[in-house]
Amino acid sequence: MEAAFARTVWQVLEPLHAVTYFAPESREANRAVGLRGFWMGYFAARAAPLGAVTAGVVEAVFFNFHPAMVRRAIPDAWGLATPDAVLRARTEAAAAALRRTAPPAKDAVAELVLLLERVVAAADGAGRPLFAANRGLPAPEDRVGALWQAATALREHRGDGHVAVLTAEGLDGCEAHVLFAACEGLPAGILQENRGWSAQDWQAAADRLAARGLLDGGGHPTAEGRSLRTHVEARTDELAVRPYRALTRTEAIRLLDTLTPMADQVLASGVIPFPNPMGLPPRRPRA
Description:
Elements: H1 4-22, H2 24-32, H3 37-47, H4 55-62, H5 67-71, H6 76-80, H7 83-101, H8 106-122, H9 129-135, H10 143-168, H11 173-184, H12 188-195, H13 199-211, H14 223-241, H15 249-268
Helix pairs in contact: 1-2, 1-7, 1-10, 1-14, 1-15, 2-7, 7-10, 8-10, 8-15, 9-10, 10-14, 11-13
């Protein structure tokens, strides 16, 4: 199976996973268990599979957030809601959001869960803490919840691998965003605001990238910078595709054919904003 499959499947799994950040059901669920504000809900819900970890652990595994942003939420969140309560809330809310935005057929859900759980079981958890923590959770009895959980585990598998590649290339969290924004032509503001980096942090990161020859004096990517960005994405795909080789070609095609309409419905619902800090590309009309 070609590495490009990993990017294609990410583009249809990410919308299903991302309802947990943006859907009103998920925001309300976090509030209902006692979490305060969007970002405390984000950090607690995403980190909950790890247990009541310290801010330092969340900074390390989430990688691209300013440490001060993490510390405004963690560990205070664990005094307001236990990880177990947060886990129950996030799964129930995500399942409700998927039922509303992309009501799946019962048979399709059953098939998707079987295929995705086989991929999850085949994946290597070494060096992938968020993936391993999500894989270690009990499978939800609700099949739509189980679909969301499998999608989330595979999303974190890809993310853990991406962080490994970025750090291997000597990029820190802010530098990764600056290079991404420069190469993709994205406004810096959305990434700065959503990841807690100040204008000074952003400029300092740009200066470090320029010193490495990755950006020019105007903040535009050099040929070397674009090459590094391409390498990071290609290597991420190479690492992410491995567990999907547990599927036959026919099963892989069936997985995409079944996931794609659901992802399209989620995106068409408007629940996920564009542009977004996840790097998810805008929805393209299907031919």
